[in-house]
Amino acid sequence: MNFDFDEKELDLATRLKKAIDQDAEKRVKSLRTGDPLECLNLFMDYLGRLADIGYLGLGVKDGNHSSALVAAQEALATLSPSLFLAVESSTRLFGRLVALYGTSHQKEEILPLLEQGRYVGCVALTESGMSVENQPFETTASSSGKDFTVTGTKDHVINGPMADRIAVITQADEKLLIALVRIESPGVIVGERYAFIGYEGTPVAPVQLDRVTVSAKEVMGPFDPPDILGNLRRWEDQVLTSASLGLMNRSFQTALDHARMHRSGGKPVIAYQEVAFKLAEMLTLRQTAQLLAYRAAWMDESGDRERDILVNCAKTFCAESAEQVASQALQVLGANGLPKGNPAEESYGSAKYLQVAGTSSEISRIKIGDRILERA
Amino acid sequence: MEFSFTPEQLMFKEQLIRFAKKEIVPRVSEHDLQSKFDFDSFRKLGEFGVLGLHFPEELGGSGADVVTTVLAGEALGEAGVDGGLSLAYGAHTFLCADTILCHGSEEQKKRYIPKLASGEWIGCMGLTEPGAGSDVASLSTRAKKAGNTYILNGSKMFITNGSIADVAVIYAKTDKGQKHAGISAFIVEKGTPGFSAGRDLIKMGVRTSHTSELVFEDCEIPAKNLIGQEGAGFLMAMQTVEWDRSALLAPFIGGMTYVLQKCARYAKERHQFGRPIAYFQATKHKLADIKIFIEAARSLCYRIAWCKDQGRPLNHLEAAVAKLFVGDWSLKPANDAMLLHGGYGYCHEYEVERYFRDSRLAPIGGGTSDIQKKIISKLM
User: Fold this and answer.
1) How much is the ipTM here?
2) Mean pLDDT of each 10-residue bin along chain A, 376 residues long
3) What CA–CA distances, in Å, run from B211 to A48, A367, B25, B116?
4) Is the pTM of this model over 0.90?
5) How are beta strands B195-200 and B211-222 bridged, if at all?
6) Is there a contact between A9 and B1 if contact means CB atoms under 8 Å apart?
7) Which residues of chain A neighbour B297 with C-beta distances below 8 Å?
8) Which residues in chain A have their CB less than 8 angstroms from residue B377's CB?
9) What residues contact residue A272 under an 8 Å CB cut-off, 6+ apart?
10) Using a CB-CB distance cutoff of 8 angstroms, which residues of chain A are in contact with residue B7?
């Protein structure tokens, strides 16, 4: 047992804080409605910096989560939530899919570029009719000898507007295939970037695939759906758990700074119990969430049989705590928290995304409940 | 970061759960109904080595580390031991005996620790007063030096084990002019003239522990019963806080695991609308919320224990965070467990009723949730 960060964990997080500027979130957000090329250039700049400190390769090849990775993720998610989500979708989701399920040719072609920050990937999973997990995908890949034809529409594809390659999850009879679709392929139509209530700097868009031809050597699978979807969901949930920590850190710090500086009745507002006690509750939630997230990561790393249930617990608790902390932060900030653009306001909107994305809080609770009942 | 227990720790936990299920749990319900302390179970805890787990072997203990000691508390809860007996054990071992162990003279240690470790003697700690709770500096019990004796006057309130204790660690003011620095700690034995316990209080939960007032009327004790130096009492009391917020919280968390198992089994057995209620999403959500609470709370608790094992100075912030979380956030899952059982949950037979009552103490005992918020906001 050791509740201290080790040298490795501290070192990477420290280097990351030096590599990414404090204004990163503002910068990526400002390009939301601007020139897509300028936006891409900015992301590539950040990817390059993250590659230089070794962030992009962490836990990709082995697919393992770890407390060292969470420490680094938490640091990036605190500096820039939007950049974090985009980077993680490319590396820890797309990258891990290729690393664990790809052919040696696919790995050789894609992984070095991802690790060097010269390539952006994304995963196209969600569909509009996907209300429950076991429902078959409507996007299909049909074989015509050496090629596959991919047809369907995917929603909410993170990095869709700037990816080089899209890992499209498709149905092929009872099995799943993953088509590594090049963005420039004929028939790939990336829709208009969504305007979300949170994560405004993360490029997210629908992707339509209209009879896209994909060479057989660029297709992975076939896979049993529970196996690959289980892994994908777990990775996604782990990313969103770390994202939650980032949001909590941002909104808590903003509220704390304000409570110390803002004066009312001749004293800083932190001197009032109504404010100070809210901050105490926020800090309690934040510390509890951190420990749970780190323990879930450690369980993954150590191959604990409780891993999956802990990942679900951590994701649910952290995502919901992020909203509570942001909400309390806004209350502490008073009218100062209402204008758009402050970290508490941003976190409040983004936190809702975390409860819906990946395994939603509701599905997560069903999974946890099922596991408990299995053992009873 | 690394969160594993050693194989020895896990084996000990399993053994303790088995022991408690066989030797203690079968009598819990009866004692709770009668609000009666279970002396047999307490002594059995002593025989098993729980009462003196972290004491040195030469004083009758097992020399265990703090993490193992906290694990023991969790094991008791997980086995189904009620909050009352766990609280009595906590007050005895951590609030009374540990203070003597850490700050007492060699003579005091030799006289008291072996008997407390075995359970032959029962210990209690008297800090709270009718007019002084978390505001320790305002306590009014006085200890006046008179030659080779101290004369104690005053009263203590809400003292766990108060009426059954053979030995009490009592905090009193030796210097009225001082606040915290005027507080000293003393050992008072049962039967000392002028020392008496009031009636046992009728409580909502933790009913198998006896809670009473202690009264000191010109109670004369030998000067050698002073623990440490005059004026050092406040720091001693503060050091018990770490125990209060780790080992004493652990049975609540273990108890929640016990309740979760009960809920899951009940949900599978109970049929409504032609199917087990386990089938319904709302049931699964309740089970999940209980599980999430357990997992979130565990790390907080073990963090304090681990820090204590590292010999770190008082970690008040972490301790207060753990106490606040377990205290306030346990209310909903405890309530959910009762709701899941419907009308049966409201009845004594199904045990969740007892756990619900017992768990109400978590945000009150050892410093209310508001006090924890006060500490956290001061330190952050």
Assistant:
1) 0.95
2) 92 93 92 84 96 96 91 97 98 97 96 97 90 76 92 96 96 93 97 93 96 96 90 96 98 98 96 98 98 96 92 98 98 94 94 95 97 96
3) 65, 42, 21, 19
4) yes
5) antiparallel
6) yes
7) 288
8) 270, 273, 276-277, 279-280
9) A264
10) none
